[in-house]
Design a protein that fits this description.
The protein is α/β, with parallel strands linked by helices. 34% of the residues lie in helices and 17% in strands. The protein has 23 helices and 28 strands. The strands form 7 sheets. It has a 7-stranded mixed β-sheet with strand order 16-18-19-17-20-21-22, sandwiched between helices. Strands 7-6-8-11-10-13 form a 6-stranded mixed β-sheet, sandwiched between helices. The protein has a 6-stranded parallel β-sheet with strand order 25-24-23-26-27-28, with helices on both faces. Helix 3 packs parallel to helix 9. The chain is elongated, with a radius of gyration of 31 Å.
């Protein structure tokens, strides 16, 4: 309040913003000298009367237009030719900056640049206008890097000032991403037309083929005027400043930054692969504040938290056994170096088509993530069943093999729908279920044409090290601590809540890491769990036993459940799992059911004790078993006793207390897993060869 001010500090010698009264003082009386000679009452009355008008350059009469503000910030003394500037005008932006600030400040030091942080909302009518405050900075410095508060800078990133020209504005051009969406393109064109008509006073002759993202900008002093508040009131559009800049900057003054300098979340599925290669990560267009903060925190933690940093080095996430089977087949069976897609445009005649199973879902077919790559070798193709069924016109001369991963009725039905010459079941359980289905439905299919070929660990994922010291050090696991690992999608079938809750019953030196992903990938799969006191949603077993209907709820539940326990961490599923498995003392898979269960078999290759429910391939392996029985989808068994946290905890403690027995079982499991790996390639080659000979 004015009455609390020290009037002795009124030492203004020029018009402008008065830092004492936090008001604008002009040249016309009453002016900056007047305030020292008048009474405090006169000052208060004057400033209350003129508070808005003296701060506002042009008051908008249209509620859809933003008023023009005379921005003022007290800038720190200039120490460098370069500046790194952020604007945190409100609490929302300050929350983001609280996560990213350290990375930005460190980057400014690396670049020998001044760090300038502009806070406080100087335009309550349109907060986005605050971005134009950077003009006060750009007109002072040789070059200024502006960053949105939701931009995280990776440590050790190159100096952007040395990698950008001194006579051009540098920005990432997201026009291709915008143009790919008709709705966004129409929105962009409408703003462009308004800019030309109302700001530039020029006819709109042709479209502007730029859309410069304003989250990362390098502005040289010589071009500071190009990113300055317009002289006319302008429309309150979220990205108006970007569109205006795109219209103002001629091609010869534009330097397009690569995505490495502005890896936008807006890029969709590309974001995660790009983030591994990028310097600046821009978590934009995430509407929910808590989600955006969690994403930013994840990248922030990756710099200091080794457990989270695992996800920053991966090349490509592989979700689930089907994806890994596909890659394993392509790499080891077909010896293929050619990757392409099975679609309507591919008219090349293939002798053999190997079909892996997916449910009929048109939405999946439209999603490129579901068009998994397949190998092409000796005219052998690997394709999803859905695309094969969709392209039935090209199947007449093809020899088809169906691969069944789950003993589920709809998989059996789909496997038979393509009229296969052979059906490959990944386990004896799958085969038994298929024979039961054939009998029940009076389907005559030769038993000799049903083959069991177990899935097998991909050799490229097995990297057993003689010492696990470095891996445990990397994960910050102490010598006295026990590390329990589970590689699993976050899906109701996995029963991860039992494993997480078991931590309450285990000694404090027992640590649990779950490396898992869930669908949809572009929304939740990369979240990093943060400690705190979250609101736990209620989760109970569905009365009908069909968990998949409640998948989204379950994902939220698992993340929140884990976040409330300090000894439990969740990471996205890793393509390179060697660090986790080399460091692990025990692998646990508490699944309600499994089609196969490839991850536990991979763990066996690392000579880790494996504890799991009697389902999938684990029912055929000599590993430690949880006392559990559950109805598999499509089977007639009654629902058995649920595996509880108490069951998991007691079994874990028993394993660690019986080392001799554990070592024997580990050896047996390793031998069988190794035999699966050796047999996989040979069995498939024999099968493919027999098709060529027989047909």
């Amino acid at each position: 309040m004015v009455e609390k001010l020290d009037l002795s500090q009124c030492i203004c010698d020029k018009p402008g913003w008065c830092p004492v009264f936090e008001k604008e003082m002009g040249t016309m009386p009453p002016n900056w000298k007047w305030c020292q000679d008048c009474s405090q009452y006169d000052r208060e009355e004057h400033f209350e009367r003129t508070r808005k008008s003296v701060r506002t350059l042009v008051q908008s009469t249209d509620p859809h237009l933003a008023s023009l503000i005379n921005f003022y910030d007290e800038l720190p003394p200039q120490q460098s030719e370069y500046a790194v500037c952020v604007v945190a005008a409100n609490d929302y932006a300050l929350e983001h900056l609280s996560v990213t600030r350290e990375s930005i400040v460190e980057y400014a030091k690396l670049c020998n640049a001044d760090y300038i942080e502009l806070t406080g909302d100087q335009n309550e009518d349109w907060p986005m206008a605050n971005k134009y405050r950077i003009y006060q900075v750009t007109k002072k410095y040789k070059k200024t890097l502006y960053l949105d508060c939701d931009v995280f800078v990776k440590s050790g990133s190159p100096n952007i000032f040395k990698n950008t020209p001194d006579d051009k504005i540098s920005a990432y051009d997201e026009f291709k991403d915008v143009a790919s969406k008709q709705k966004d393109l129409e929105w962009l064109r409408s703003i462009e037309k308004w800019v030309f008509a109302n700001i530039l006073d020029k006819p709109y002759e042709s479209s502007v083929d730029n859309m410069l993202n304003g989250g990362v900008l390098v502005i040289p002093q010589s071009l500071a005027e190009l990113y300055r508040q317009p002289q006319k009131c302008y429309i309150k559009e979220w990205c108006f400043d970007q569109v205006l800049l795109s219209c103002l900057v001629p091609e010869e003054l534009l330097n397009r930054l690569s995505f490495k300098w502005n890896c936008e979340f807006e890029a969709g599925p590309k974001f995660w692969s790009r983030s591994c290669k990028s310097h600046f990560i821009h978590v934009n267009n995430v509407k929910q504040q808590d989600k955006r903060l969690r994403f930013l925190s994840m990248f922030s933690d990756s710099e200091t938290n080794p457990k989270v940093s695992l996800l920053m080095g991966h090349k490509k996430p592989i979700s689930g056994g089907v994806g890994r089977w596909n890659e394993q087949f392509s790499n080891t069976v077909t010896d293929s170096k050619t990757i392409h897609y099975y679609d309507d445009e591919d008219q090349e005649c293939s002798d053999i088509v190997v079909c892996w199973l997916m449910g009929h879902n048109d939405n999946k077919l439209k999603n490129p993530e579901y068009h998994q790559p397949f190998g092409h070798f000796n005219k052998i193709e690997i394709a999803p069943i859905d695309t094969v069924l969709r392209d039935c016109s090209n199947l007449s001369n093809k020899k088809i093999i169906s691969v069944v991963h789950n003993p589920i009725e709809w998989e059996y039905k789909n496997a038979l729908a393509v009229n296969p010459l052979k059906i490959v079941c990944v386990s004896q359980r799958c085969k038994s279920g298929l024979k039961t289905y054939l009998t029940k439905n009076s389907i005559d299919y030769p038993d000799e044409d049903i083959v069991v070929i177990n899935n097998a660990p991909d050799p490229s994922r097995i990297n057993v090290r003689e010492s696990r010291f470095e891996d445990r050090k990397y994960l910050k696991i102490q010598n006295h601590e026990k590390l329990i690992v589970c590689l699993s999608r976050i899906n109701p079938q996995k029963n991860l809540e039992a494993l997480i809750k078991s931590s309450d019953l285990l000694p404090s030196n027992y640590k649990i890491i779950i490396a898992g992903s869930e669908l949809p990938k572009n929304k939740l799969s990369r979240l990093s769990v943060r400690t705190g006191s979250p609101r736990l949603v209620n989760w109970t077993q569905p009365a009908d036993g069909v968990w998949e209907r409640y998948h989204e709820e379950y994902v939220k539940y698992i993340y929140e459940l884990a976040a409330s326990r300090i000894n439990v961490s969740i990471l996205p599923l890793q393509n390179d799992v060697s660090t986790l498995l080399n460091a692990a003392d025990l692998y646990v898979q508490p699944s309600r059911y499994e089609g196969f269960g490839l991850s536990p078999v991979e763990a066996m290759m690392y000579r880790i004790p494996v504890l799991g429910t009697n389902t999938g391939i684990l029912s055929e392996m000599p590993c430690f078993k949880l006392n559990y029985k559950y109805r598999h989808l499509g089977e007639q068994d009654t629902v058995g006793q649920e595996t509880t946290a108490e069951d998991v905890a007691s079994s874990i403690i028993d394993i660690f207390n019986s080392k001799i027995k554990s070592d024997i079982i580990v050896d047996e499991c390793h031998k069988k897993a190794r035999a699966m790996q050796d047999a996989f390639v040979e069995q498939w080659r024999l099968l493919l060869g027999s098709l060529n000979e027989r047909y």
